[in-house]
């Protein structure tokens, strides 16, 4: 598309320049010859008048005086007594001449056509040079315009590809092109809807697992009481024991369903070294922070492994770093440490923090402290919840966010095969 845009712009520019340049060159060529003719007419009239005035005085008229006053011209003066005065060199080849009379004085002035042709050629070359400059400027502007159009399209394609893979992070950037900005807004809304659907599905599975586990546990307790209360019934005891075993199997199945609800393949949560994800994001964002005179530091315990989608964690960290770059100040610190049954990643800066009026709603949709879309933190927290984690604001001024990741050991139960059958 970029090549087609450049070629079409270049073609339009060349056609426009040719339509303007060719008539202009023709008119300039004609103008040079006409001006040369008029100049010779003025010179001939001036010489005739001067010679006539000198004869009336009388004053001597010589060819040397005329040649000195009109260099580069061949002048022939016919006096009233029939004598002829000449001045200047005889030109070779074709000449352009003009004749004038003053009483009985007749003057003929000539110059080589080659001089006029050279002057016309220089003017045409000047016009051609300006035309080439115009083409070059047009190509440069076309390249800038093509890049202005292509860059947003590439970024929108990347955003759409991320949506297809389940990683919904909006792009707060807008490009000043109404049509492309409209597409970006639609993609942002789609990202919100996709995240809401994933979170709703995950929440439903979690709630269903909890709702099933409670009555199944109660059923197990009742069956155990039935077995203990029986006097003789060997058959009842045998069936009761089988029912208890079956109920225990149901509880195990629900436990695995609960683990799978927290470890849904939609999120793609796997045991992931968080150091690699953080290092990759720091490397990506550090040039922007350096340009702003700031730095990004990594502290805490290294080698931690959390249960998360690496791409989702990258999006969360990127969102927090971007918010710090736009709204924060000073150095940014990323601190990692183990927690009680979780892995913690804290990201904070030295800025003024979050205004008190925004603090309770900082994770709400469309809430922004600047000119952003207000979707970044909302979707970042949704991505954390999708993988069974959390994103919280633990300090407002200066702002510090904490990402809670599940420990990698929780992946074992989710990956076990669910087996159900008779006791």
Automatic annotation (TrEMBL):
Main location: membrane
Cofactor needs: Mn(2+); Mg(2+)
Membrane topology category: Multi-pass membrane protein
Catalytic activity entry: ATP + protein L-histidine = ADP + protein N-phospho-L-histidine
UniProt keyword terms in alphabetical order: ATP-binding, Cell membrane, Hydrolase, Kinase, Magnesium, Manganese, Membrane, Nucleotide-binding, Phosphoprotein, Protein phosphatase, Stress response, Transferase, Transmembrane, Transmembrane helix, Two-component regulatory system, Virulence
Transmembrane segments: 119-144
Enzyme kind, highest EC tier: transferase
Any one GO molecular function term: ATP binding
Keyword Manganese: yes
Domain Histidine kinase: 207-409
InterPro entries: 2C_sensor_his_kinase, DraK_HK_N, HAMP_dom, HATPase_C_sf, HATPase_dom, His_kinase_dom, HisK_dim/P_dom, HisK_dim/P_sf
SMART domains noted in UniProt: HATPase_c, HisKA
Name of the protein in its database record: Signal transduction histidine-protein kinase/phosphatase MprB
């Amino acid at each position: 598309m970029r090549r087609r845009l450049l070629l079409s712009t270049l073609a339009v520019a060349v056609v426009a320049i040719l339509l303007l340049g060719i008539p202009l060159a023709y008119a300039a060529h004609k103008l040079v010859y006409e001006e040369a003719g008029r100049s010779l007419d003025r010179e001939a009239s001036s010489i005739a008048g001067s010679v006539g005035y000198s004869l009336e005085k009388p004053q001597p008229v010589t060819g040397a005086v005329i040649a000195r006053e009109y260099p580069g011209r061949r002048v022939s003066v016919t006096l009233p007594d029939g004598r002829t005065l000449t001045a200047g060199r005889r030109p070779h080849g074709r000449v352009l001449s003009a004749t004038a009379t003053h009483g009985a004085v007749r003057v003929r002035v000539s110059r080589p056509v080659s001089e006029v042709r050279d002057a016309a050629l220089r003017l045409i070359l000047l016009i051609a040079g300006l035309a080439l400059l115009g083409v070059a400027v047009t190509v440069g502007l076309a390249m800038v315009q093509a890049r202005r159009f292509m860059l947003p399209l590439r970024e929108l394609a990347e955003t759409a590809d991320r949506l297809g893979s389940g990683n919904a992070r909006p792009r707060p950037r807008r490009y000043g092109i109404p049509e492309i900005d409209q597409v970006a807004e639609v993609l942002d809304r789609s990202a919100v809807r996709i995240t809401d659907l994933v979170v709703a599905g995950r929440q439903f599975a979690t709630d269903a697992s909890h709702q099933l586990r409670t009555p199944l546990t109660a059923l197990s307790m009742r069956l155990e009481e039935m077995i203990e209360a029986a006097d003789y019934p060997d058959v009842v005891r045998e069936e009761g024991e089988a029912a208890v075993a079956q109920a225990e199997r149901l509880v195990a199945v629900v436990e695995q369903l609960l683990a799978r609800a927290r470890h849904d393949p939609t999120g793609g949560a796997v045991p992931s070294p968080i150091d690699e994800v953080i290092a990759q994001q720091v490397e990506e964002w550090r040039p922007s922070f350096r340009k702003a005179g700031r730095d990004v530091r990594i502290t805490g315990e290294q080698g931690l492994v959390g249960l998360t989608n690496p791409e989702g964690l990258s999006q969360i960290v990127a969102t927090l770093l971007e918010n710090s770059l736009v709204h924060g100040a000073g150095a940014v610190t990323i601190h990692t440490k183990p927690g009680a049954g979780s892995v913690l990643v804290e990201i904070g800066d030295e800025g003024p923090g979050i205004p008190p009026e925004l603090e309770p709603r900082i994770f709400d949709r469309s809430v922004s402290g600047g000119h952003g879309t207000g979707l970044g933190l909302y979707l970042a927290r949704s991505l954390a919840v999708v993988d069974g984690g959390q994103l919280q604001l633990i300090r407002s001024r200066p702002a510090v966010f904490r990402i809670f990741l599940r420990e990698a050991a929780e992946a074992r139960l989710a990956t076990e095969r669910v087996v159900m059958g008779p006791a």
